[in-house]
Amino acid sequence: MSEVAMSKVTSKGQITIPEVIRRRLRLQAGEQIEWTVLEDGVVEVRRAGGTLEALTSILPKPTTRRTLAELDQAVLRKAAENARAGR
Questions:
Q1: Would you list the domain boundaries of the chain?
Q2: Measured at the alpha carbon of residue 44, what is the angle toward residues 42 and 27, in degrees to the nearest 5?
Q3: Which tens digits make up the pLDDT trace of 28-69?
Q4: Per-residue H/E/C for the chain
Q5: Cβ density class 29-66: b for 16+ within 10 Å, e for less
Q6: Alpha-carbon distance 13 to 7, whole Å?
Q7: 80 pLDDT band (50/70/90 cuts)?
């Protein structure tokens, strides 16, 4: 599903990210976004992500070991929950 929203550029080169886009990207104040200008002039804007190493350093160490199949099932279960919740 596509979302279209408009913003104006201020004289200082700043924009306000429309609320519908902030919600869709789950952006919070202070978070970074990444801008990519493609060859055809299209601009992609996405929530900036860190490296996998940076992300894993903030997660707690698991208390139990899981198989890959168990992890796959957990991911599918959570994706289904998010889809039902409209996230």
A1: 19-85
A2: 150
A3: 888 888 899 999 999 988 888 766 665 666 677 878 888 999
A4: CCCCCCCCCCCCCCCCCCHHHHHHHCCCCCCCEEEEECCCCCEEEEECCCCHHHHHHHCCCCCCCCCHHHHHHHHHHHHHHHHHHCC
A5: eeeeeeeeeeeeeeeeeeeeeeeeeeeeeeeeeeeeee
A6: 11
A7: very high
Pairing relation of β-strands 33-37 and 43-47?
antiparallel
Residue type, 62: P
Mean per-residue pLDDT over the chain, rounded: 86
